[in-house]
Structures are given as C-alpha cells and as structure tokens.
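Task 17 of the worksheet. Students: predict the tertiary structure of the chain below and write it out as structure tokens. Keep your answer in the requested format; marks are given for formatting as well as content.
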Amino acid sequence: IKSASAHSAYHLACSLEINGRLPDAMPRLLATGSNGHGQLGIAHRDDVSRFTSCLFSDGRNPLEDSTVRVLSLVSGGNHSLLLLTSSRGRNEIWVTGSNRHSELGPGIGPSVNVWTPLDLAAVRGAAGLVEEGTIYEPVAIGCTWSSTFIAFSRSLISDSGLRISDVIVSFGSN
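Model answer:
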C-alpha cells in the first residue's frame, strides 16, 4: 500500500484477506480509517475504526475470481486507486473517493464511495494515447494529495518487430 503522506495512510488501511479459514474462501478488500470522501470504498462516508469489507460497483467483486492478481493499491488525500490484472489477463484500475479535482479521471462523477472501474479508454482518449496498432496497458499507479499518475506500457507492433516504451499520464490538481 502506498499513500501520498503519513496522514493519508490513515485514510486508507486496506488489506487483502482470505475470508474465513477454508481454502476456497473468497478474498476481499478491507478498510479502516478516515472516510469523509468515500475513499475507503465502503458505500458510505463515515469514518470506521474496525476493518470493513470494501464494496464494488454493480455488486461484483473482481477479487473473487481466482485468476485476478492485485498489482498495486494507492491512496491520496481523499481518493484511492487499485490496479489489478483481470481474469481476462488485462490490467484494470478501480477508483473510489473524491473527484473534485478530476483525480479519479474522466467519466467519473464528483465522487464515488464504492470501488468503480476506471474507463481506461476514456483516459487513453483524453491523453491522446490512441494509435493504430498500439496497445497502452496500465502497469503502475501513484497518487499525491489530489493528483493521480498512471504509467502505461506502450506496445507498438512495427515492421522491425515489437518496441516498448512507457507513457505517464497525470490528472487532478497541481
């Protein structure tokens, strides 16, 4: 877990846990701490002092699929991001919290209080990362107090073979 400051580390204290003691139990994301902007993703904005299960939009929990791999979990002052590899083998970003400064990216309302998938096509489009024959895959995420950073790995198939270079996109406040 990475956070923008020691203060925001208190805002998001999430961990993965195997629910129960059985090997087939479903993993879940737990959170505790300050939650005034919904940054814990627990469907309300009240602070919580006990670990509480995070909730995901549409009632689905992407962590329940055994092929999902959590790559990174980061938090800013009032927003949080989760980067994972989906069961389809593609990386996804889920967001929750304040979007007052557009720190959650395009296509998200002023705030969300459950984990919501980020529309990566909208992020790529807004950043001009749309090229024929090129795939931009999110590979890393970071936050400051009210900003977000996404590193995209760029795979370009050309006549000379496969070339890779990375692009970092930022949004939110200065």
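Marker's comment: The longest strand covers residues 147-158. The mean pLDDT is 83.
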